[in-house]
Design goal:
This protein is mainly β and 86 residues long. Helix content is 0%, strand content 38%. The protein has a single domain, classed as SH3 type barrels. It has a seven-stranded mixed beta sheet, with no helix packed on it. The protein is globular and about 30 Å long.
């Protein structure tokens, strides 16, 4: 999915895997990734290149079992912004 296909902001959109498991919500967006806060105090820093669809939810092109390779410590510093301000 090309960056031009995204809505202006993904902030607070629900995030699901392609097998329809709910992960959480987008809490931060950078030029290359989204930060998702989910259940059980999970945080995932997921590359935007894994996004296959955006509508009411952001759909990731992976099954739930594979999302844990993107797990990050909830209290770790958030990634730097790389989105240009308008």
């Amino acid at each position: 999915m090309a960056a031009a296909d995204y809505p202006k902001s993904l902030f607070n959109k629900g995030v699901r895997t392609q097998d329809e498991e709910h992960l959480g919500h987008v809490m931060k967006e950078t030029g290359a990734e989204i930060v998702v806060f989910g259940h059980y105090d999970y945080r995932f820093d997921v590359p935007k290149s894994t996004i296959i669809a955006v509508g009411r939810n952001v759909i990731l092109g992976m099954d739930y079992a594979h999302i844990f390779k993107y797990k990050a410590a909830k209290d770790a510093p958030l990634p730097e912004d790389t989105i240009a301000s308008y």
